[in-house]
Hints:
Blueprint: H1 2-19, E1 24-25, H2 29-39, E2 42-48, H3 53-61, H4 66-75, E3 76-82, H5 86-94, E4 102-106, E5 112-117, H6 122-133
Parallel strand pairs: 1-3, 2-3
Antiparallel strand pairs: 2-4, 4-5
Amino acid sequence: MKKTILLLLFALGCLATAEAQVRFRDVSADALRRKAAAADKLVFIDLYATWCGPCKKMEREVFSRPDIAALMERYAVAGKFDIDKPAGRSLARSYGVRAVPTCLILDTEGRLRGTISGALSPAAFEAALLRIVGQPGEER
């Protein structure tokens, strides 16, 4: 009985941890735009590289935070694209991205609303995202 309870608590803890970070969908950019259109949200694309230290820092210190995850879920459908792979390389070329990490915020037609570049603190990332979505200084 104790083992069952511990296993259940562990599973719930894992679920809570999974929900406490930004949910990046593993789909094409076109599918991401369709999902965003269906949800009446923006498209958020994280362009990164596996070898990029600042990209890893963003993953560890920003995208893992529950408050950032909630903010992202409110405004956007998110996806990640490695610039060393064809889809990521194509997106970077299409939007003139020359360095990673760079986050693209697009409307559902693929028009660029704004970019967030470099490894930012959670507060700076939040402020930049809110500025782009048109909600400066919004209280949550």
